[in-house]
Amino acid sequence: MNISLNRIILFGKDVEGLKDFYMQHFNFKLLEEISGEWVVLNAGAIEMAFHKIGSDFITESDEPFRVDSNSKLVFNVDSDLTAFCAGLMQQGVVLRDIKSFPGFNYLLCDGEDPEGNVFQLSQKLNNV
């Protein structure tokens, strides 16, 4: 038996906003959509889907919905991470500082999408 991960589903309040965020900033392509309810994007080796949360989880507050999760999505970047992050920040994307660790051949930068899902951008460094 061979088992592989092919799709990650995130639940959110503003499916359209999440779709727009990942299509605009990460250049993911739309695969399927039920307007306002369901979106699937091509995120490379796997699909990334957004499903509207149930009404039991939506409050009457005007505050934006923020997810409370212990998950982190990690995306590989095959170009200059510093320049890519600078461009995202100019567009208002919430990012933390770029970091690296001794003996770990990557640059890393954490950020958040509009609903608070934490993601990490990762660039493999060339061995010197």
Task: Give me the secondary-structure topology.
Layout: E1 7-12, H1 15-26, E2 29-34, E3 38-42, E4 47-52, E5 72-76, H2 81-90, E6 94-95, E7 99-101, E8 104-112, E9 118-124
Parallel strand pairs: 1-4, 5-9
Antiparallel strand pairs: 2-3, 3-4, 6-8, 7-8, 8-9
How is this structure best described in words?
The protein is an alpha+beta fold and 128 residues long. The chain folds into two domains: 1-53, 2,3-Dihydroxybiphenyl 1,2-Dioxygenase, domain 1 (Roll), CATH 3.10.180; 70-128, 2,3-Dihydroxybiphenyl 1,2-Dioxygenase, domain 1 (Roll), CATH 3.10.180.10. Helices cover 17% and strands 38% of the residues. It contains two helices and nine strands; from the N terminus they run βαββββαββββ. The strands form two sheets. Strands 5, 6, 7, 8 and 9 form a five-stranded mixed β-sheet that branches. It has a four-stranded mixed β-sheet with strand order 1-4-3-2, with helices on one face. A hairpin with a 2-residue loop joins β7 (99-101) and β8 (104-112). The longest helix is centred in the N-terminal third of the chain and has 12 residues, at 15-26. The model has no long low-confidence stretch (mean pLDDT 91).
Low-confidence residue ranges: none
Shape: globular
CATH topology of the largest domain: 2,3-Dihydroxybiphenyl 1,2-Dioxygenase, domain 1
Number of helices: 2
CATH architecture of the largest domain: Roll
Rg value: 16 Å
Structural class: alpha+beta
What's the story with the biggest beta sheet? 5 strands, mixed
> What's the helical proportion of residues?
10-25%
CATH class call of the largest domain: Alpha Beta
Order of helices and strands: EHEEEEHEEEE
**Portion in strands:** 35-45%
Work out the number of β strands. 9
CATH superfamily descriptor of the largest domain = 2,3-Dihydroxybiphenyl 1,2-Dioxygenase, domain 1
